[in-house]
Amino acid sequence: MDADDVVRLRLRRQQLRAPHADTPEAALKNLLAVQSQEFPYARWSLAQRTAGASAADVEQAVADGRILRTHILRPTWHFVHRDDLRWLSALSAPRLHQGNQGMYRQTGIDAAVASRSARVLARAVAGGAHKTREELAAELQRSGFTGKGLELAYLIMHAEISGVLTSGTPVRSKGGALRQTYALFDERVPAAPTGPADRPVALAELVRRYFQSRGPATAKDCADWSGLTVTDVRLGLALALEIDPGALETAALDGTEVHFKPDSQHEPAAGGTARIDLIQCYDEYVMGYSRTRHFLGGTAPALPERDTPMHVVLRDGRMIGSWRHVLTGGSCELDIRTGPEPGDAATPGTDRAVDEAVEAYGKFLEMPVVRK
Length: 372
Fold this sequence. Notes:
Elements: H1 3-13, H2 24-31, E1 33-35, H3 39-47, H4 55-64, E2 67-72, E3 76-81, H5 82-99, H6 101-106, H7 111-125, E4 131-132, H8 133-142, H9 149-161, E5 165-167, E6 171-172, E7 178-179, E8 181-184, H10 185-188, H11 199-214, H12 219-226, H13 230-243, E9 249-253, E10 256-260, E11 276-279, H14 284-287, E12 311-315, E13 318-328, E14 331-338, H15 350-365, E15 369-371
Parallel strand pairs: 14-15
Antiparallel strand pairs: 1-3, 2-3, 4-8, 5-8, 6-7, 9-10, 11-12, 12-13, 13-14
């Protein structure tokens, strides 16, 4: 297995190449969890792995609760399918709480405070009364909490991690931006078991789905992505192979073991002209790896605006630049910056491929898009 194999197989397993998913929630089921702190761009991560879903399609799936957005795995936002959230929360909650202990102490959140705030928050959203962060803050303040700053952030996060709150139906601000609301976890997540019944089997399920959707990758990649330890990942890997010996294959890559979906190394390489993908900076093609992220390759010129996420331009799976969008007056302006071609020779079809990527983004947004 070489670097070209790694790139080609990751593109296919992550469904950035055919066969694509039928729906955004099907793409999410394949990936298990998708980092989503930049909500507008995270919609794109799911949609571009489908046969043509729009931003509205993803928003509707979130509104309906088929896709939920919450703090899980690592202490950051992720999209998770509702059928996976209960077991995945049970698996990751202990390490998330452990990792947050320093901030809990700093903000005065002990077991008693967390329990009392959880009751306040649960009552506030019960019966489908989804509320924004500001509305939850007001409820906490009426019950004697400060309800501001870090205390508010960590009380809400504690409730998410503990299975009290999850995402509700988003609402639009006066400026048109979508705002997160919170709902009662038990009203949005199926109560009937839809996943692994105990921790060892949950470890096996997470590890199997990670490597099948992101392989070739290492145990360290999986551990950093999931927030678990390498020891836990190896336990999950051993059990996954015990349950289904054909679930994963192993190969050597730069002296390190990588795991991936069986037979994937035999798939033919794609030919033809260049393919351009515009992916968000937190896309799983980037964030799904740590130890082997360098296979992304390339360097991307920084965009001039400060505090603006630098999203990634891929040519045939390797980074060649950065992009961002600006929405003005019902249209979208794409600022795309690319570096020099390898060997200073343009790859045939690159300009046309960029135009096709811009067109695809316009269809996703369902508005006119122009390249700056």
